[in-house]
Hints:
Blueprint (H helix, E strand, L loop, with lengths): L10 H11 L5 H8 L9 H8 L16 E10 L4 E10 L6 E7 L7 H12 L3 E5 L12 H8 L4 H16 L4 E10 L1 H12 L5 E5 L15 E6 L3 H4 L2 H10 L4 E6 L16 H18 L2
Parallel strand pairs: 3-4, 3-5, 5-6, 6-7, 7-8
Antiparallel strand pairs: 1-2, 2-4
Helix pairs in contact: 1-2
Amino acid sequence: xxxxxxxxxxxxxxxxxxxxxxxxxxxxxxxxxxxxxxxxxxxxxxxxxxxxxxxxxxxxxxxxxxxxxxxxxxxxxxxxxxxxxxxxxxxxxxxxxxxxxxxxxxxxxxxxxxxxxxxxxxxxxxxxxxxxxxxxxxxxxxxxxxxxxxxxxxxxxxxxxxxxxxxxxxxxxxxxxxxxxxxxxxxxxxxxxxxxxxxxxxxxxxxxxxxxxxxxxxxxxxxxxxxxxxxxxxxxxxxxxxxxxxxxxxxxxxxxxxxxxxxxxxxxxxxxxxxxxxxxxxxxxxxxxxxxxx
Length: 294
């Protein structure tokens, strides 16, 4: 069987997967449409396997990394889901109080990839918290399809309260210096934008390909660093209006659009991953947090 490469996959397949991953087409219709691209020795099974996440081989920072202290905790979210499970990470040898980062998952709960991102943030010198908004429904169920199904059952504004509560938890944590930022991906990018609107003392926000707020943009105090993939037409469509409002109210922001990058380009567990764009965006993110959370 032919071994697939990213270059073998048409852009329409990535767009179709994006529609499926964001509930715009059913699984049945997704597979039916996917079959039209199973040509030239490529089967639907091999195509599906190639574009699906690989959480086994792609973890960058192991849970038992010797330089990291990482554990699951619970915190209170009285306006949200109640008691929320989260992964709390920090450098093992940290002696001083650390700046905090809330790491917000995509639309499928705290999967292994976002746990890994939380550990990366911890290893970079921060106290990071990666909550699981699926906690009230039993937590991330072990696969993304079921995770998406569960997340659809929760109100997104109630989930926003869960991440605002995570901000409060970090801000008041004895190991935190009191300055807290947020980084999020996809759904988490929307949460990051909304936390900038809703949390007056948020110190920085970094949305990766996140939906944009349309109201109360004048309330934003936090500096923003926004990352977009050039090929992500769905999310990018809202950016000009958002940027116009940021300019109107003289808000501090930087935005980068990464050439030939798809939605989800930072997620290294799928072929939408763009290594050059992802590494540059992450470096910019860490540098931004080091500047704004010091």
